């Protein structure tokens, strides 16, 4: 069929269509542009945050910096850099004889780490330090938490240390034996030494 519409008629139809649909088309384009821009902004922000956290973490590793550590914990608490830096700070404090400060950092890592592995490591180290500082009830509470099976030897060893701190040699020996058994061929010699130190009667 021959198209009998004149150019003027076609122009009028285009104008009418645009008048009816132009606003929604422009809105759709605007939304798309905003969406793309927003995604790019979010990516840029995320990258900047990660780079900042990395830089602060590097500062805490080269030399202990309380300011950098607190900035990491306050502004980048969801970053693994923050919890790892807290573990490093705890080690620094423990080696300096500042057990209370070390406990604070380990507790922060245990409470705030988003990675399960870091959280479990923090709890293990915290438990060991709590036992060393005679905070036995708190240590027992931590040991009642669930840990993956791979941590069983460490957990049993700490249960032995806790029992020994309570002067319960029998329970300590049982826990050390479980730790040795669950370690298999990988059992460290010091576990057997801990068990042997309890004497033959347990």
TrEMBL record:
What subcellular compartments does it reside in? Cell membrane; Membrane
Q: What is this protein called?
A: Ancillary SecYEG translocon subunit/Cell division coordinator CpoB TPR domain-containing protein
What are the protein's UniProt keywords?
A: Cell membrane, Chaperone, Membrane, Transmembrane, Transmembrane helix
GO molecular function terms attached to this record:
protein-containing complex binding
UniProt key word Secreted = no
Q: Where is the signal peptide?
A: none
Question: Where is it found, in Gene Ontology cellular component terms?
Answer: plasma membrane
User: Where the protein is mainly located, per its record?
Assistant: membrane
Q: Which domain of life is it from?
A: Bacteria
* InterPro entries (alphabetical): SecYEG/CpoB_TPR, YfgM
